[in-house]
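Deviation from plan, reported transparently: NAP complex.
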Amino acid sequence: EWLYYNYKKKVNLILLEVLINKEEFKGKVVLVTGASRGIGKAIAIELAKCGASVAINYNSNTRLAKNTLKSVRSYGVNAEIIKANVSEEKEVKYLIRETEKKLGPIDLLITNAGILHVPKDVLDLDYKIWKKIMSTNVDGTLLPIKEVIPGMIKRKFGRIVCISSIAGLGKRPNMITYATSKASVIALARNLAEAVAPYIRINTVAPGLIETDMAKAFSKETKKNIILNTPLKRLGTSEDIANTVIYLLSEQSSFITGQTLIVDGGKVVLP
Ligand code: NAP
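Because the crystal trials were delayed, the predicted structure below was used instead.
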């Protein structure tokens, strides 16, 4: 099983290399929010492999952000870490200013920073927590997008990918606040797509459960059940999501905008 899994992974990687012309990202400036660890880190590294200049945003953990920076720079690209809370307008303005000052005008934006809360009681709709999740996940998606759009329109080029979740589709009664925030991300991208076209494309990725720090909120038992209820019989990896993001940023997806791509091993196709 292990051999088969690794063989499949290698074949997928080779296919991706053939499909995506990695040259197209060379010298492009990309900002990834929440890139100190997890999915954001994997996206930053994959884009560095393609030769992009990478701005690595984070909120609190400078040590981890520096680790990401080291990995990204090992591919010989320009990169910077920039600390900013994506839910604060002033800090986001600073984040965009610093990125453009240090690396140049932003071509590609990935709004990935996000937080999860799983309440013990379904009806424990704590308003303080609601505001924190909404401001990080929803304001934190809107604010960077709002700041980069005028420049992208002026330069007639821009690609934006927002990270939502399958929690934002269907229903998740055990995490109402998080699910609502992720549904808002999907709605935001879908409704913006027409207004920013034709030079800017904006799409959303909806991952299933991915093995990162965030997944620690779930017990081993829950994870086992999720794997059982997933046709592809595993949890997702940050690289699964990074590869999808690269596809949506690339010219291979040049006729796709306003869409949500589900990356969950087929979980949502089950009843
Ligand atoms: P993670 O491992 O917890 O990492 C979260 C990242 O976001 C960190 O780099 C963190 O920086 C940053 N961050 C958090 N709040 C921030 C803020 N206010 N401003 C700027 N940066 C902030 O999470 P992940 O699993 O990689 O998740 C990434 C995205 O995928 C999230 O939007 C999440 O909702 C979504 N997602 C995850 C899963 C999953 O199963 N993991 C499934 C579906 C969707 P610091 O370390 O500095 O705080």
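The chain has a mean pLDDT of 94. We consider this an acceptable substitute for the interim report.
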